[in-house]
Amino acid sequence: MSRSSHTARLISIASAAFSLSFSSAVLAVDADAALTLARQNGCLKCHAVDKHKDGPAYRDVAAKYKDKDHAETVKRLITHITSGEKAKFPDGHEEEHKIIKVKDVAQQTNLIEWILSLPGGKWPEN
User: Fold this and answer.
1) pLDDT at 50 over 70
2) Residues 87, 55: Cα–Cα separation, whole Å
3) What is the structure's pLDDT at 92?
4) Strand, helix or coil at 30?
5) Residue 16: enclosing H or E segment and its boundaries?
6) Which of these ranges, 24-28, 41-45, 93-97, has the smallest mean pLDDT?
7) What digits encode the pLDDT tens for the residues 92-119?
């Protein structure tokens, strides 16, 4: 094996190892940090983990997006919590969704990943 092909192979292996370690770090959800962030930002005024309030239960949100493209869902929900777009309510009225205060995308993503990891929800909600 030539020196350049050996170097290229080592770079490829290192790159793959880095990608795998990065992927597992992204997929690790810190539930305590997510719940703390939800509390600090007032999310639990309208949402609960397992029951409908003014907004859907987080388990029901997870059920709604269960069979959807995961990356697109995460992107969509981060946009929802950071843009103030309208939230639709069962009675037909709409309100601007409260914008989350934290600007750190990793924290936002952790919150969304935690919500999507919750089991046992139903969609459509009952």
Assistant:
1) yes
2) 9
3) 87
4) coil
5) helix 3-27
6) 24-28
7) 899 999 999 999 999 999 999 999 999 9
> How many Cα atoms within 13 Å fall on the side-chain side of residue 112?
23
Question: Which residue, chain included where needed, has tokens 């009675």?
Answer: 91
In whole angstroms, give the CA distance from residue 76 to residue 87: 13
The model's pTM is: 0.75
Provide the H-helix boundaries in 28-97. Answer: 31-40, 58-65, 70-83
* Inter-CA distances, 78 with 3, 15, 84, 110, Å: 46, 28, 11, 10
Find the helix or strand (DSSP H, E) in which 73 lies. Answer: helix 70-83
**Where on the phi/psi map is residue 68: left (φ > 0), alpha (ψ -120 to 50), or beta?**
beta
User: Is 38:48 a contact under the CB 8 Å cutoff?
Assistant: no
Q: Which residue has the tokens 């069979």?
A: 67
